[in-house]
Amino acid sequence: MNYARTVATEYGLVRGIVKDGCHEYLGIPYAAPPVGDLAFKHPIPPEPWNGILDAVRGPISPVQGTGRSTIELDGRDCLYLNVFVPEDIEPGAPVMVWFYGGSYANGGVGRMSEDSDELSYDMARIARETKTVCVNFNYRLNLEGFLNLHFLDKNFDQNNGLFDQILALKFVRNNIHRFGGNADNITIFGQSAGAACMLVLMGNKETSGLFDKAIVQSACVDSFWTEKQSQRLTYKYLKFLDVSPSELGRLKDISIDKVHEANRLLKKLVLRDGNSNCCFSPVIDGVTIPDRPGEMAKKFSKPVLIGTTSQEGDLFVKNIPNIALPLAAFWFKFKFKPGKGAHRFMADDFTATFYREPAYDIARNMAGDAWVYEYRYQTPNMLKAQSGCCHACELPLLFGKSNAYINIDDPVSQRVGEKLREIWGEFAWNGSLSWKKFKVDGEVKGID
Question: Which label site among 10, 59, 223, 417 has the fewest CB atoms less than 10 Å from its CB?
Answer without folding.
Answer: 10
